[in-house]
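User: Structure please.
Assistant: Input sequence and predicted structure:
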Amino acid sequence: MKAEIIAVGTELLLGQIVNTNAQFLAQECAALGINVYFQTVVGDNEQRLTDSLKLAASRADVVICTGGLGPTQDDLTKDVLAAYAGCKLILHEPSMGAIEDLFASRGIHMVESNRRQALMLEGSTPLPNDAGLAVGNAITIEGTHFVLLPGPPKEMKPMFTNYAAKWLSTLMNEQVPLYSKMLKFAGIGESTLEHQLLDLIQTQTNPTIAPYAKEGEVAIRLTTRAHTAEEGEALMAPTMQEIQGRVGEYLYAVQDVPLEAVIVQRLTETKRTLSVAESCTGGLLSDLITGVSGSSQPFLGGIICYTNQVKHGLLGVPMDVLEGEGAPGAVSRETAALLAEGLLRTLGSDFGISVTGVAGPNPSEGKPVGLVYVGLAQKGKETQVFTLQPSGSRGMIKLRAAKSALYQLWKQLKEN
């Protein structure tokens, strides 16, 4: 089937919001075996939205709309599609009940416009909103299948994954269940991973291979149709083995979990502890780790050693290493090693990770933006230091540095 994605919202046209929904939906459709041929962005205008829906219906089997399901008068998507289909909007009672309960629990008066979020097209399939208030819709109109989703990604993604994808699957010619496996990688870039697997991606049939990317991590989803889970596993096994043979050293999980969750689990299982010293990442590494449930057991703590005084006073890095003519400086292999070793002494952890570098936007100590050193100390072993050169904005450099530090720890944990 052919699909078109329509993102609704004037704020998208003005560049006030980046349209990340289209990327997510295109990837999800590919995993379902639905080809996205067109993507459209249209503002909150009744006539232009009507024209966009008509055009999409003329050239696609599936039209997926995001946005315009909210309570205000410029949230027009359901109204416009109802007019196009010649059907009424009716109240979805479960959604209305959830909206009323929410306002009552907060002691806030609910204005009448909030009822709009519980409206659905008569004859449509409601798509529950587990993360918000506006109910989604799925409906077939004169042979074209329409899916209406909310605009906020935190609402749209679970609605599509949990409900819309299943509805779309029932429309496929061969109604055989989908089985998916998410492969998560670290320490390798999206383009490099794709290059290593390009022939597999280009010749994919069953299973399908859909690459995904987030900052610091990349993923591949394998998807197949099978009558049983065992049959699905068997169909995916040859492709899985081929991928492992090529890039298995970067594969940290065969489920959709972040790298820090795998590290926390491994540390907990082996009864070992971790502490971190962060300069250029400013606490981001600690935040990633403590975002994992159960991290309090293996994670002893972190020190944000942003200044040389803290590097020296709390972690014992000599001032003649940090400052002075001919000194290596705060951004150096020597400092990264001493910071990591200082953690073992100061906090008594089994592992110590340090991150020191230049996040930008300006050079520091005569060193370029993006130069980062990661120190990894372990009790009873020689300290390792890794040199990184992540690119991008200040925020991107910090995140990529933190994720790279986690990758180096994961490799060490995997070996012992």
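The mean pLDDT is 94.
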